[in-house]
Write a structure and sequence with these properties.
heterodimer, A: alpha+beta, two-stranded antiparallel ribbon, elongated, B: 132 residues, alpha+beta, TATA-Binding Protein, five-stranded antiparallel beta sheet, 7 strands
Chain lengths: 70, 132
């Protein structure tokens, strides 16, 4: 599955990040890695809010079902 | 009245390469803005130009401006007899472009391919990055 980042940068510099195609917590790991790289280039990003998408919950419940079946 | 207006884009430890790219992007997106390749003939006193500064000129402004990194690594926009609106405009746009270039570079390091769009109406940058 293709991992995707959709990033919007507003006129005032505010950033919005949406991810898709990640499995479970991998999106958070990738997001943290991006923050770390941006920090090295002088861009400090502070997370104000994280809203998991429906896709995130679907993947979580699928994983729970798989774990139960095993 | 002649004066020099200086404004900081508060990005500490800014990267010179990202700044160069951000200024290039800014000049491509804003037709009124011209990157001055040579400092010869640049408005104002040449002695006031910092070594390594990037010179830009806004067509609505009589004089040019210089963009450089100060000793703290902050981006500084400074120009002689600059009007407030031009400085304010350049400052906010440069901050947005710097973040865009830094994000593109970081995503590429992570192995993503990026596509960037500029929404002129909303003055918003959209970056789509894909991997796999």
């Amino acid at each position: 599955m293709t991992e995707q980042f959709l990033i919007e940068i507003e006129e005032d510099g505010e950033m919005f990040v949406k991810t898709s195609g990640f499995f479970g917590n991998a999106c958070k790991v990738a997001g943290d890695k991006l923050k770390g790289l941006l920090s090295k280039l002088g861009v400090q990003v502070e997370t104000e809010d994280i809203k998991p998408t429906d896709e995130y919950y679907r993947e979580q419940s699928q994983r729970e079902i798989q774990t139960t079946q095993q | 009245m002649s004066h020099t207006r200086t404004q900081k884009v508060k990005i500490k430890n800014a990267n010179p390469k990202v700044l160069e790219d951000a200024v290039d992007m800014l000049c491509k997106l804003i037709p009124e803005l011209e990157r001055v390749q040579s400092i010869r003939g640049y408005g104002g006193s040449r002695s006031s130009l910092r070594k390594g500064a990037i010179a830009v000129k806004h067509h609505n402004s009589r004089y040019g401006q210089q963009i450089y990194l100060n000793e703290k690594g902050e981006i500084v926009i400074s120009g002689e007899s600059m009007d407030y609106e031009t400085t304010k405009f350049l400052t906010s746009q440069l901050k947005q472009m710097y973040k865009t270039k830094a994000t593109q570079m970081s995503l590429k390091k992570m192995g993503y391919k990026t596509q960037t769009q500029y929404d002129h109406e909303k003055k918003k940058i959209k970056i789509l990055a894909m991997r796999g």
